[in-house]
Amino acid sequence: MPLAVDMRHIRKFFPSSSVLACDDVDFAVEQGEVHALVGENGAGKTTLMNILYGLVAPDAGQIFVHEKLSHIAHPNDAIKLGIGMVHQHFKLVPSFTIAQNILLGIEPNQAGFINNNDEADIVRRLSESFGLPVNPNARVADVSVGMQQRVEILKTLQRNAQILILDEPTAVLTPQEVRELYTVIRKLADDGRTVILITHKLLEVKEAADRVSIMRRGRMVATHSVADVTVREMANLMVGREVILRVDKSPATPGDVVLKADNLLVAGAGGMPAVFGVSLEVRAGEILGIAGVSGNGQTELVEAITGLRPVEGGTISLLGQDITHASVRKRREIGLAHVPEDRMEVGLNLKTNLDENVVVTHYQDDPYSKRGILRLPPIRKLAQQIVDAFQVKSARVGEEIKTLSGGNLQKVVLGRELYGNPRLLVVNQPTRGLDVGSIEFVHRTLIEERDSGAAILLVSVELDEILSLSDRIAVMFRGRIMDVLDAEAANEQDIGVLMAGGSLETEPAAAQKV
Amino acid sequence: MIEFLNTYSRQVRIGLMIAGILVVLLLLVSLPMTLLQSSIRLATPYVLGSLAALLASRAGVLNLAIEGKMLLGAFVAVVTVYQPGVLPGQGRDPILGVLVAALFGGGLGLIFAVLYLRIRINLVILALAVNLFVANATVFFMRVLFGAFGTLADPSIRSLSTLQLPIIHNMPFMGPLLSGYQIVVYLAWVMVLVVWVLLFRTQFGRHIRAVGENREAAESVGINVTRVQIFALTLSGMLAGMAGAFLSLGVLSQFVENMVSGRGWTSITISLFAFEQPVGAFFTALFFGLAEALSFYLQSRPEVNLPPDLLLALPQIATITALVLVALRIRAAELMKRRTFAQQFGHELDKLRRGVLTSGQD
Questions:
Q1: Does domain A3-239 have CATH number 3.40.1480.10?
Q2: ipTM associated with this complex
């Protein structure tokens, strides 16, 4: 088979985040195949595809499209070469009809005036020729997410795309819609079109793809025929064998229930549930780890518990008090502390100084303010205490914090959140982007906090972190908790199966070697 | 309440529409003709101003400089027809003043767009700067160029001539209601139609709406977002300039310092209230014209025993009421969406739970 896409020695470095997203990556796709590109978040797969689509300029490398060297500087160049991309977040105009969205920018017109009936006819013909039924006159805002995705696919087909890139296409779909999508993808490939499927869901690869390429940390680690690899082999290639940071800890001595969530329902983007019927308990003196590939509802669950996102159904209680709809301040008064996923935007205010950042959770309490006026000496003292206790290097009282390293910023957050001995600590991705020393410090602090009787809910996409810190492990998949395992008995393989939506009792047929 | 709105949203909308029509009919029949006529006249700056506001926000730019652009239009229009020494009533045709005002308004809109889109000046600061600049520049030039303080007037300045519509003019009731206004009043009505056709029947209008609603969607299909926004802001400026010209030449035949006095801001409210629909904005503007006319009318009535300050504030009270209604509508829509979500998926969740329980018992 001739190659539809051949990317050679692609390199891309992002100076702003100093991430080497693509490190000498080779990627070849045959014409007429469904080729899955898998990897964890941040492995570089989306960057690679953005380069192919002209959204990101590579630092080095060559791209051959249909075996011709091509220069793709803008999505318009990609479209001209017959490349279409369906983004994870759809690029549709909600108040427009399906026909208007499909023909946006290429409206048939007479002297600038457009005719809605002509447009509907064109789209009807298009949808019939590909066997993708749509109602051209329905408003996009009124149709399901699956239908919106179909609109995006038709949009690329109307522009005569021969190579379709689908970025995480099943992330927002219901199981039935996923099934329909697979059928559509297969049909497109049978017609001689090439489909590239970006995903981190390995069961999907098994079901939908012919070949699979696996990326890890900016490198292409393997390309296989899907028939020749198992889900487990793919998972191992995707995660890689890494040094496991061992954390010394004594067995937990769980006390009373501190946090109890019952049958939670939380909305995500696009009107689909992000958390769908989650029930969990965290006891004093234990760490409950939540494992899962990112984007399976962990962030929304954390936001619901910490009061940053409204709860649509179910209840949350903290130390026996119902906090389902309580304000953030109320939750904190009862004993909640939160180390958020994004320390730069949510955890801290980098535009102000250390003092204001540490006092922000306690500024209304004695002695930090009296009758609505902040009192600086006690605030300075608090800042100094946190700097000393958490060894925040190069942080000075009263000075800006934006120049601190990620590790030191995280120490400031931890110091503030642990001040006042919280009863429940919710931590989300606590060591993302940190160096080894800081990771160790964060891990040690969490264990100490557990031993002094706090309940800790730890959310992380780093499986090693979950395994080494947690006392119990809950695995989340598509907004649900698949299973809760005892950390002693858990192993990486079992969790990997659950993370991919499998079950431990009966391994899905797709996961067995064909 | 929300549930009710949810189930019967279509019926509620139709009901509201019928109620609106009834209120309008009732007003038409019960109010004196002179009041209705001055309502329509006074609504004209609001009609043009709200079209200017909605055109910009349809393109995704909140145009807070309409006040300034209207004031510029008002000033330039008077300057154009200001010819001291010419016999009273023999000066230049005021229509020329309106056209020049539209040109200057458009020019200011273009400059505004370039400063915002190319040099990337903060939109709000830029708009406030434009408003303050025009307010002071008009006063300055009035003194320097014409030696006038506070008011620029001259006998040579004619006000806009009136137009008698054929056929309609001689009809009972309809004749006095619809015929005999200045030409800009009719121009404003035509512009409602023009803006509607532009937005909803042309390719360019569709691109404007796409840019305003989802910029990334427009960009991803190769629409030049900046160009679309520059065009929309220029046209918006032209409409605002015309609105200003009507204020100075249509009503008073003179320019008075800060004569727009908040009508630009009210126009933005009208556009919001009408959900950026040209026809909706037209009727909302008429309502604001009525509020303004009513405040003049009631003051001239000895039997009305209300404090004159309160009467003067009628248009402002109408503005605040409109803003509160806009906020409530948005809030109600959000609540409704959450409610639907909770119902739909809560139900699915229950079903799932029951399924698990029964299968466990088997």
A1: no
A2: 0.83
